[in-house]
Amino acid sequence: MWCFLVDPGQGDVLWDHEVLIARLMDQLPDRYVGITDSSKTASRFTSGPFNLQSAYGSDLHLLHIVRDPRAVCWSLVKKARRKRSGSNDALLSAKTALGWCYANAASELFRRRFPEQYTRVLYEDLAADPHVVVPAVLDRILPSAKWSSDAIGLEDNRHQLHGNRMRWKPLKVDDIRVDNEWKSAMPTRLCRLVGSISWPLRVRYGYS
């Protein structure tokens, strides 16, 4: 998952994913704004951080949120099973694991090129203690501002333009919970498949 925090009001290019973000920024010319791409791997948007950095320069900060690839794959497998019977779990898991690697590798490349505009957070840390992690992240990105986790997401929360069914209702920080269902429910063969495909980055991020 990626969250882009930008200083709006710059750039004018053709309408696509990034330009839609730019147009949203133009509506709030005097505020810092967070835009979240919460697709499971964001692999179709790997050029996004670089294109937005080109448009906004040092005013953009990439918040790179990483989740265990096995949890990501299990979430998609469950969704596919609900939609249709006989889904190919192994093929979907392999494709998702490759997408996870591709998207995170792109984020790592962004980190190497623009280290001061990059912050990485593990989903598990964020979900386990959002009252600590969220203010710490915002302090790094906007050190001059004063943040209180109690006020984040209470009045103006919107769950982006596209995503799961949760986007239709407001969420509070205290609603966040770690989802580790995959550890008990995901078949061992799928765990091993995803683990073998993703192991270099998986180990880098501390997922054993």
The total tally of domains equals 1
- Give me the number of helical elements: 8
Helix content: 40-55%
CA-atom Rg in angstroms = 18 Å
The quaternary structure here is: single chain
Number of strands: 4
Distance between the termini: 20 Å
Mean pLDDT: 78
Global shape: globular
Query: Into which percentage range does the β-strand content fall?
Result: 5-15%
> Structural class from helices and strands?
alpha+beta
Low-confidence stretches: 6-14, 159-163
H and E order: EHEHEHHEHHHH
Largest beta-sheet characterization: 4 strands, mixed
Report on this model:
The chain is α+β, with helices and mostly antiparallel strands. It is globular. Helix content is 47%, strand content 10%. It has one domain.
Please provide a brief summary of the model:
The protein has helices at 17-26, 48-56, 69-83, 89-113, 123-128, 130-141, 182-185, 188-204, and strands at residues 2-6, 33-37, 61-66, 118-122. It is an alpha+beta fold. The protein is globular and about 50 Å long.
